[in-house]
Amino acid sequence: MGGGRATRHPPGRAAARRGTLNACAKSPLACLGSPLVLLGPRTHSSLRSWRRRMPMETAADSREYRVVFFCPASSARLERMEVPVRRLLTRIHAPPAELAPLQEAGAITEAGWQVFLVRSLTERSAAQAMAAYVSEATCALAAELDAEVLGLYVDVSGDTARICRCGPEDGPETFAGRRQAALNRTAEWLEVTPVSLSALFHLDLPDAEYEPDADDRFVEEKLREARTLMERYRQGK
Question: Each residue of 93-117: pLDDT tens digit?
């Protein structure tokens, strides 16, 4: 994956930070972004062959593979989101799974995003099966919710990831690469700190550079202000 408008984003974290800080300093609304979360791991055509080939694989809550979606909390409706997710899982013959909200997402929740997980209901997991369909699922959810949605697939052991951002009237904007680079881009798109995403996935950060500092807290404060203003605007329409 890779394409869309993703090439417009600054390549380095320092450049991204400067751009975000400058935008937030001018106006809280300039900090706004929009997104959602699904999780799950590996799938095979046969449970028996899966057991023979992968005897040490863990059960449904394995952390090896993840598909996550972020959406604005103001737009998140579980009953509506289940429809396109269930339709996709059925079409690609993925293992049985359910969509469940993640209640404790820390700074991500505070920033205004609702996080959802795809939880497998058997020993086989759905995330790897969905890896090639992240963009399709993201855009389907964006159309259903009439809001911008961000989808993220992470292969933890393989150190790779891919992301997609899609709005109800916009085409998908994608990025693929090393896991940390993708998490950095996701954090940039979500307007949160990389440490927030790493905490969500229980991943170790590569170094102390990602510890939240005064600039990170400044950006998150501006994001909260921006979402408050946007909510007031929507309620007044």
Answer: 998 888 888 877 788 888 899 988 7
Radius of gyration of the chain (CA): 18
DSSP state of 56: T
Q: Is the CA virtual torsion 147, 111, 67, 99 positive or negative?
A: negative
Phi and psi torsions of 30, nearest 5°: -70, -15
Q: Find the DSSP H helices in the chain.
A: 13-26, 47-53, 78-91, 107-110, 127-130, 134-145, 179-190, 194-200, 214-236
Q: How far is CA 81 from CA 41, 84, 150, in A?
A: 20, 6, 13
Residue at token pair 């969509």? 99
Exposed/middle/buried for 62, CB within 10 Å: 0-12, 13-18, 19+?
Answer: buried
pTM, 2 dp = 0.60
Q: d(Cα 54, Cα 111) in Å, to the nearest integer?
A: 39
